[in-house]
């Protein structure tokens, strides 16, 4: 059993982004892995904005990342890049805080115009934090996720297959460690 930490870079748990979180969490738990989540928007805003490295909430979140073998980074695309909320947290990780970890980026965007966000915006930041094993991840259009009710979402079948494939590869990576 490995430790997985999901960093949720959205600004709400009501977003379609939550579907990617639910899907990821379920897949890793089904494989017997321990899953922790960091909902960045629930961390103290003052600590994020003022880069308060001494904050207990930030320290606790960083311990979850430190203990993880796999870190899933889930973010929406805003202005052709990952969310600012996510960036405020990533800035509070130690300089080599992702070293030796496998990273899985999952990105939700509004159009194919932002398809390269993972490669040109997110991966460089993850690399600067020491990540060397960054899986290809998945870019998902928000139009492929429908809200079924307040807590549940329906992911279109073709995207479901792609996400399942990415999560399967991540699980295989964990099982090899």
UniProtKB/TrEMBL annotation:
Keywords: Flavoprotein, FMN, Oxidoreductase. It comes from the Bacteria. Transmembrane segments: none annotated. GO terms for molecular function: FMN reductase (NADPH) activity. Residues 3-143 form the NADPH-dependent FMN reductase-like domain. InterPro entries: Flavoprotein-like_sf (IPR029039), FMN_Rdtase-like_dom (IPR005025), NAD(P)H-dep_FMN_reductase (IPR051814), NADPH-dep_FMN_reduc_SsuE (IPR020048). GO terms for biological process: alkanesulfonate catabolic process. It is an enzyme of class 1 (oxidoreductase). Pfam families: FMN_red. Its EC number is 1.5.1.38. This is NADPH-dependent FMN reductase. It comes from Alkalicoccobacillus porphyridii. The gene is ssuE.
């Amino acid at each position: 059993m490995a430790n997985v930490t999901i960093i949720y870079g959205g600004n709400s748990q009501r977003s379609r982004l939550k579907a990617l979180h639910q899907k990821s969490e379920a897949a890793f738990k089904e494989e017997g892995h321990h899953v922790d989540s960091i909902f960045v928007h629930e961390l103290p805003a003052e600590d994020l904005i003022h880069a308060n490295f001494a904050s207990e909430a930030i320290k606790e979140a960083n311990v979850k990342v430190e203990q993880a073998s796999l870190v899933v980074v889930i973010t929406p695309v805003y202005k052709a890049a990952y969310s600012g909320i996510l960036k405020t947290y990533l800035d509070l990780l130690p300089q080599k805080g992702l070293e030796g970890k496998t990273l899985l980026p999952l990105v939700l965007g509004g159009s194919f115009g932002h398809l390269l966000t993972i490669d040109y915006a997110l991966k460089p930041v993850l690399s600067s934090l020491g990540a060397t094993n960054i899986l290809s991840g998945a870019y998902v259009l928000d139009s492929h996720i429908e809200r079924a009710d307040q807590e549940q979402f329906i992911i279109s079948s073709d995207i479901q297959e792609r996400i399942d494939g990415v999560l399967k590869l991540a699980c295989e990576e964990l099982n090899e460690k």
